[in-house]
UniProtKB/TrEMBL annotation:
This is Glutamate-1-semialdehyde 2,1-aminomutase. It comes from Algibacter pectinivorans. It catalyses: (S)-4-amino-5-oxopentanoate = 5-aminolevulinate. GO terms for molecular function: glutamate-1-semialdehyde 2,1-aminomutase activity; pyridoxal phosphate binding; transaminase activity. PANTHER family: GLUTAMATE-1-SEMIALDEHYDE 2,1-AMINOMUTASE, GLUTAMATE-1-SEMIALDEHYDE 2,1-AMINOMUTASE 1, CHLOROPLASTIC-RELATED.
Length: 428
């Protein structure tokens, strides 16, 4: 494939945008080479600036669950735009999307709409702190909750009781309120709670981790967290920015039948426009301004274009009783197909999957937390990534990302992808 125009555009972009990208995951730092510039997309396909067609497994990192330029979403946005793009005043459509979300998701009475997943998680934690009157939070190594200060924390060597910032600019003061636990390790969480008695406001978790590859919770892990939270007056925050409206209508809460106290959304809820949200039962949500003391605000929150896109997307997902089953079946088909050709080519691998989230790790061991995810062979991944790209399949340019399956993918597209894996496997 030729990437001439993409390379030229990237060189131009680098002069005026740090690293040439507006979000670091778009750069090819992890795999080498220069990012592909997209011209347009439709259904399961991206068309880049050099005229290449790529089968897309990123789908804007999740939102395009029904494919690119999905007609009902495009139509809703175009119609809405003609009537004004922002007012900073209440509009009916905000209530419509809120009512629909509340009807689809278990255990929530009210929802506040914001502009990104980062904002949703940041605000959820503030609300948890305000509601419980406690300062500390527990997060899990390898889970991503956006780029606000409290979340940019990782353990140094092994797990430390107090977090160490992994970005300059995050203060020690902020870092010391974030405690870091190992994903899928209940004993580790229990020990942190014991060591910080009556200080922990919330545990925030991706109920299926999707930012270190796809890592499902082991049997009993989420229920164990629920029980610990109940026993210690700690709020359980499910960051469903990735899993919400993807794993089921009601997200991971529905799939695993576990209630969280606060739930965060993003990605799918915006249908491809910038939307985030957080939701909870009345007694918690009523703590928010202007009803309660915890402040949270946004000039463009509930923006009419974003609401139109999100409402059209949720309406479609709500009306299509089979969509999540179809997505699961397609992903399972891909899983079986890829495993088969990697085995035939004697490539050491592990494939993790929940619903329409799937990741391929080039290591034979089970991948259950950040440490085991980090063991994957990055050199093999780089070769795999560029091989797939050349074969016309776009996966995330990092060994630590989940592939997102869209309903726009046909079985022919899946077979095309499996055949590409077979070809590339011979070069690994
Ligand atoms: C993408 C993501 C976020 C951040 O959302 P942005 O819209 O990028 O700010 C937060 N949490 C999870 C689980 C995510 O996948």
């Amino acid at each position: 494939m030729i990437y001439k125009r993409s390379s030229a555009l990237f060189a131009e972009a680098e002069k005026v945008i740090p690293g040439g990208v507006n979000s670091p995951v778009r750069a090819f730092k992890g795999v080498g080479g220069t990012p592909i510039f997209v011209k347009e997309a439709k259904g399961a396909y991206l068309y880049d600036e050099d005229g290449n067609r790529l089968v897309d497994y990123i789908n804007s990192w999740g939102p395009m669950i029904l494919g690119h330029a999905f007609e009902p979403v495009v139509k809703a946005v175009v119609e809405k735009a003609k009537k004004g793009t922002s007012f900073g005043m209440p509009t009916e459509i905000e209530t419509q999307i809120a009512e629909l979300a509340v009807s689809m998701v278990p255990n929530i009475d009210k929802i506040r709409l914001v502009n990104s997943g980062t904002e949703a998680c940041m605000s959820a934690v503030r609300l948890a702190r305000g509601y419980t009157g406690k300062d500390k939070i527990i997060k899990f190594a390898g889970c991503y909750h956006g780029h606000s200060d409290s979340f940019l924390i990782q353990a140094g060597s092994g797990l430390s009781t107090f977090g160490v910032p992994n970005s300059p600019g995050v203060t020690k003061g902020t870092a010391q309120d974030t405690l870091l636990a190992r994903y899928n390790d209940l004993d580790n969480v229990r020990a942190l709670i014991e060591a910080n008695k009556n200080e922990i406001a919330c545990i925030i978790i991706e109920p299926v981790a999707g930012n270190m590859g796809c890592i499902p919770p082991v049997e009993g892990f989420l229920q164990g967290l629920r029980d610990l939270c109940d026993a210690h007056n700690i709020l359980l925050v499910f960051d469903e920015v990735m899993t919400g409206f993807r794993l089921a209508k009601g997200g991971a809460q529905e799939l695993f039948n576990i209630n969280a106290d606060i739930v965060c959304f993003g990605k799918v809820i915006g249908g491809g426009l910038p939307v985030g949200a957080f939701a909870a039962r009345n007694e918690i949500m009523n703590y928010l301004a202007p009803l309660g003391p915890v402040y949270q605000a946004g000039t463009l929150s509930g923006n009419p274009l974003a609401m139109a896109a999100g409402l059209a997307m949720l309406t479609e997902l709500n009306a299509d009783a089979e969509v999540f089953k179809r997505l699961e079946e397609k992903t399972a088909y891909l899983h079986v197909g890829i495993a088969k050709v990697l085995n035939e080519n004697n490539i050491l691998h592990t494939i993790n999957r929940t619903g329409s989230m799937i990741s391929v790790h080039f290591d034979g061991a089970t991948v259950i937390d950040f440490d085991t995810a980090a063991k994957g062979n990055n050199e093999t991944f780089k070769t795999f990534f560029h091989g797939m790209l050349n074969a016309g399949v776009y996966i995330a340019p990092s060994a630590f990302e989940t592939w997102f399956i869209t309903d726009a993918l046909s079985y022919e597209d899946l077979d095309f992808t499996i055949a590409a894996v077979n070809t590339v496997a011979k070069t690994l």
